[in-house]
Amino acid sequence: MEMHQVRYFLALCEELNFTRAAARCNVAQPSLTRAVKKLEEELGGPLFRRERNLTHLTDLGRLMKPHLESIYTSSQAARSQADDFRGLKRAPLKLGVMCTIGPARLISFFDRLNKDAPNVELSLHESPGEGLVEEMMQGELDIALVGLPEYPERFDARPLFTERYVIAFYKGHRFEAMNAVPLKQLDKEDYLDRTNCEYLDHFDALGIPMPCDVNIRYESEREDWIQAMILAKIGCSVMPESLPVLPGILTRVLIEPDLARDISLVTVAGRRFSPAVKTFVHLAERYDWETAM
């Protein structure tokens, strides 16, 4: 069964006249007649009964009509969506964002994306970095913003911006008197463990042993609870500098060693870009991330 046969059939259902139906479909009448006859052969019986100048649907024709109407409507809808997708009239984009990336650094970029490509339908999914890499491999995400020290060979990582790690603490903590905090100063400190944080991975990638042994008082994958515990004066915590900070939390840059991460736009090498992905990559590569904060 071919779509033009379905279209000719539906036109004939409305016109009940082969000549008018052919004119409506902009084809010669013999072409329309042959197409309908072939459709009848495929469906196993006559769809129309011709009595002199009158044409009527047979019982089989009436039975098939709603099914063929549904097929034709679905086909037209699929074609329309495909046209919209190619022209960015409707362009879904599944974006993964590592859960430790604060949204503040991304606000102005998303504002630019909305202005330059308002028809991109963005679906944002948060997860730890390794989870996003796996979802990218499985095709569940189109693109991702990730800050890992290294990626699998199949991945292309386009660095966008760099952010330092800081130590976050409550007012009155001894770190408040320091301009920056050497990492060894965390030794024996009461500490709040952000379980999704990847900063220890950077030590592993650099081959640097952790220079301190902290006293873990609390751990959570939720950034808001970690920050609430800081304000409760239970401990301090290492975090990226652009994470949102609850009022009252103080931070100092970590030094000795200086530790930072690159936030990269990650895609799977060799995977064909959709129009939405092309637009996102184009804007991200040309955006001034250094002035985004």
Topology, element by element:
Layout: H1 3-15, H2 18-25, H3 29-43, E1 48-51, E2 54-57, H4 59-86, E3 91-98, H5 107-116, E4 120-127, H6 129-137, E5 143-146, E6 155-170, E7 180-182, E8 190-194, H7 199-206, E9 215-220, H8 223-231, E10 237-240, E11 249-255, E12 260-268, H9 275-286
Parallel strand pairs: 3-4, 3-5, 7-11, 8-9
Antiparallel strand pairs: 1-2, 5-12, 6-10, 6-11, 6-12
Summarize the structure in words.
There is one protein chain. The protein is an alpha/beta fold and 293 residues long. It folds into 3 domains: 3-86, Arc Repressor Mutant, subunit A, CATH 1.10.10; 91-150 and 272-291, Periplasmic binding protein-like II (D-Maltodextrin-Binding Protein, domain 2); 162-260, D-Maltodextrin-Binding Protein, domain 2, CATH 3.40.190. Helices cover 38% and strands 27% of the residues. It has helices at 3-15, 18-25, 29-43, 59-86, 107-116, 129-137, 199-206, 223-231, 275-286; strands at residues 48-51, 54-57, 91-98, 120-127, 143-146, 155-170, 180-182, 190-194, 215-220, 237-240, 249-255, 260-268. The strands form 3 sheets. Strands 3, 4, 5, 6, 7, 10, 11 and 12 form an 8-stranded mixed sheet that branches. Strands 1-2 form a two-stranded antiparallel ribbon. The protein has a two-stranded parallel ribbon with strand order 8-9. Helix 1 crosses helix 3 (29-43).
